[in-house]
Amino acid sequence: MKPNILAYKALPDDVLAYLREHADVVTLDDAALSPGTLAAALKDADGAIGASVKVTPAMLEGATRLKALSTISVGVDQFDVDDLTRRGILLAHTPDVLTESTADTVFALILASARRVVELADWVRAGQWQKSVGEAQFGVEVQGKTLGIVGLGRIGGALARRAALGFDMRVLYTNRHPNEAAERAYGAKRVELAELLGAADFVCLQVPLTAETRHLIGAAELKAMKPGAILINTSRGAIVDEAALIEALRHGTILGAGLDVFEREPLAADSPLLTMKNVVALPHIGSATRETRHAMARCAAENLVAALAGTLTRNIVNREVLKRP
Ligand code: 8YV
């Protein structure tokens, strides 16, 4: 008998067709999705695929058949992983396929913030370009500067490559373990966070959101940055204490920020961040290219089918589940 799969995010047609070859698929309209609807639909599911929705332990209380969850993301902060493991539910995610497009987004924010691309494009649109630009419109250089990467994993590595080989930048990083490949290939140097904050012209946050990384960057860390430095966050909003960031930007503690993620998403239209010319705010588009989002959906679908067949060997978040008798 085919397993039951719940898709709680819209999937490309070919990916949905692939799932239907292997399972009976129920789809939920993600625009109208509430925790109650998702919890009710999970009751009949052997597996579920989706993204961008918090899946809490309470929502899994009635999900007695559920064997696998497959998130269309690399980040797994929408789940209580320990709770899933206790319940014997395998969690799969989509690393690798989004590495390059996300590193591009980081670099887009670096360049846009340093060269004031969004602010000055608005200025042109507003009819303010009446003579050739002067100092008031100058940005800061990117090439040759120091890039600080907080968390040098896959995306951090792709960022280090762009910075070192494309922009001749010095790369400093923090990471739980040394990243020897990045040290060899890009001259990246592992330092303590305090040293990175004090030396970097661009501080890029590339760590996952966990209890340890929540508000990793607060008032003290922002103060430790150089006054001319720019903070780039494409990881998760809660890595930064947003209220402290707003204060730091207001008082010129740092030069600017390029942000793709926020403590609350979607970002409220009345957020003070949106009134600041030295902030570039994007709507969480890190991996949002046609090609990458398709590859992520395909990868997540394949992860789920293999997980339900008991053949999944990669992209597993809680491998401990497999060791259970
Ligand atoms: C997506 C992401 O925005 O992979 C992640 O962790 O943040 C993004 O690629 C998101 O999960 C929606 O698919």
In short:
Helix content is 36%, strand content 14%. The chain is α/β, with parallel strands linked by helices. The strands form two sheets. The protein has a seven-stranded parallel beta sheet, with helices on both faces. It has a five-stranded parallel beta sheet with strand order 2-1-3-4-5, with helices on both faces.
What labels would you give this structure?
seven-stranded parallel sheet; alpha/beta; Rossmann fold; 325 residues
Describe the structure.
The protein has 325 residues and is of the alpha/beta class. The chain has two domains: 4-97 and 290-323, 3-Layer(aba) Sandwich (Rossmann fold), CATH 3.40.50.720; 99-281, Rossmann fold (3-Layer(aba) Sandwich), CATH 3.40.50. It has twelve helices and twelve strands. The structure holds 2-keto-D-gluconic acid. 2-keto-D-gluconic acid (8YV) binds at residues 51-52, 72-75, 98, 284, 286-287.
